[in-house]
């Protein structure tokens, strides 16, 4: 049976039982993104091979793969499999603090990726260890942090929580404005 191993965001290894030999034929290997069958690519593979790495693939994409034994001795039915590449795990590359006031500021980040389930925004005054966490939907790229103390420096950490379970973080410092003297 044709199957895939070593799946990454841009490649996977195909392995199959030895059906042919160098002398008895070769394989045609066809693969295409399931959503775009017109982008099919075809490779010829020596009959002696039983594995092959496909690379330069798109992340988070399901590929339909067919291995067709072109034998001059026997007929072998095509072997097919379906392989989905992993999501690209990119950490947030920018954390921006804006619209800073005495009791709030806005935190925004980039890029926003389909592979992120949620963002966690952790913030707390420096120095100190009384951090609070905001959970933000993975489709959003900013949130407003409120109820802060004036004239205080905060450490803000944005963590991308990927659907795969991995997490990547980036931190920035933010200062609230001085409060109104009255």
TrEMBL record:
User: What is an example of a Pfam family matching this protein?
Assistant: fn3
Q: Does the keyword Signal apply?
A: yes
Q: Where in the cell is it found?
A: Secreted, Extracellular space
Q: Which residue ranges does the record assign to the Fibronectin type-III domain?
A: 1-89, 91-179
Which SUPFAM superfamilies does the protein's record reference? Fibronectin type III
Annotated keywords: Glycoprotein, Repeat, Secreted, Signal
Listed GO CC annotations: extracellular region
Task: Answer yes or no on keyword Transferase.
Answer: no
Protein name per the record: VWA1 protein
Q: Name the source organism.
A: Sinosuthora webbiana
Designated gene of the protein: Vwa1
């Amino acid at each position: 049976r044709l199957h895939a191993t070593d799946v990454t965001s841009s490649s996977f290894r195909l392995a199959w039982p030895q059906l042919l030999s160098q002398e008895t034929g070769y394989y045609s290997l066809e693969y295409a993104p399931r959503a775009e069958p017109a982008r099919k690519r075809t490779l010829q593979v020596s009959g002696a091979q039983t594995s092959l790495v496909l690379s330069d693939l798109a992340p988070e994409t399901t590929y339909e793969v067919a291995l067709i034994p072109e034998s001059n001795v026997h007929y072998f039915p095509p072997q097919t499999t379906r392989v989905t590449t992993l999501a690209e795990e990119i950490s947030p590359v920018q954390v921006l603090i804006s619209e800073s006031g005495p009791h709030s500021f806005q935190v925004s980040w980039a890029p926003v990726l389909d592979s992120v389930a949620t963002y966690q925004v952790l913030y707390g005054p420096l120095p100190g260890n009384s951090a609070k966490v905001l959970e933000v939907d993975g489709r959003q790229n900013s949130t407003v942090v409120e109820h802060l103390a004036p004239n205080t420096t905060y450490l803000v950490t944005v963590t991308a929580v990927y659907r795969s379970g991995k997490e990547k973080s980036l931190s920035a410092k933010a200062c609230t404005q001085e409060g109104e003297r009255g």
